[in-house]
Design brief:
Elements lengths: L8 E2 L5 E4 L3 E6 L2 E6 L4 E6 L2 E6 L4 H22 L2 E8 L4 E5 L2 E5 L6 E4 L4 E6 L3 E6 L2 H13 L10 E4 L14
Antiparallel strand pairs: 1-6, 2-3, 3-4, 5-6, 7-12, 7-13, 8-9, 9-10, 11-12
Length: 178
């Protein structure tokens, strides 16, 4: 039995769940998410909680039991509270600005990087070196933050680049002059 899959998902009062044959629609104050589910997984809404169970013991269904439960739990939390990821930029001349639905990053290259924001993602720029990515889809928030970080990850010698807030960069000693 899946340890994650058998745990019930608590549903807050302002979140509504509609279960169809192969899709679950989760609506809340922040938006709406559709989660597709497999045919061998049964989803039941009982009062203020959702339970996920298997209809057969197929190997693939057993493997996906906990995954489907986690996706549903993330959807419920996303439409209720939302998700966010914070980034920091460090380096001389490194800065970030928001122009409409496009992020302009100056990361030490000869040109600025223009990053168009996908639908469902909101970005808040904190000063010129801070950034917060927000949205209701946990996977999409993490993917956008990782793509922004991927333009110039923090390097180990001077620490310049984009990093997650609170991320520790192991520093290396530079070249020794004898």
């Amino acid at each position: 039995m899946s340890r994650i899959g058998i745990q019930p998902i608590p549903v807050p009062g302002e979140v509504t769940i509609d279960v169809a044959e192969s899709e679950v629609r989760v609506k809340g104050p922040k938006g709406e998410i559709n989660v597709s589910c497999l045919t061998g997984i049964k989803i039941e809404v009982e009062g203020a909680e959702i339970t996920v169970s298997r209809t057969n013991q197929d190997r693939h269904i057993r493997a996906m039991h906990g995954t489907v439960r986690s996706l549903l739990a993330n959807a419920v939390e996303g439409v209720h509270k939302g998700f966010e990821r914070s980034l920091e930029i460090e380096g001389v001349g490194y800065r970030i600005a928001l122009q409409g639905r496009e992020l302009v990053l100056n990361l030490g290259f000869s040109h600025p990087i223009n990053f168009p924001l996908p639908d469902g993602i909101d970005v808040e720029v904190n000063g010129q070196t801070g950034l917060t990515v927000r949205g209701i889809n946990k996977q999409q928030v993490g993917q956008v933050a990782a793509r922004i970080r991927g333009f110039s990850p923090a390097e180990p010698y001077k620490g310049k680049g984009v990093r997650y807030k609170g991320e520790y960069i192991r520093r290396k000693v530079g070249k020794a002059v004898s």
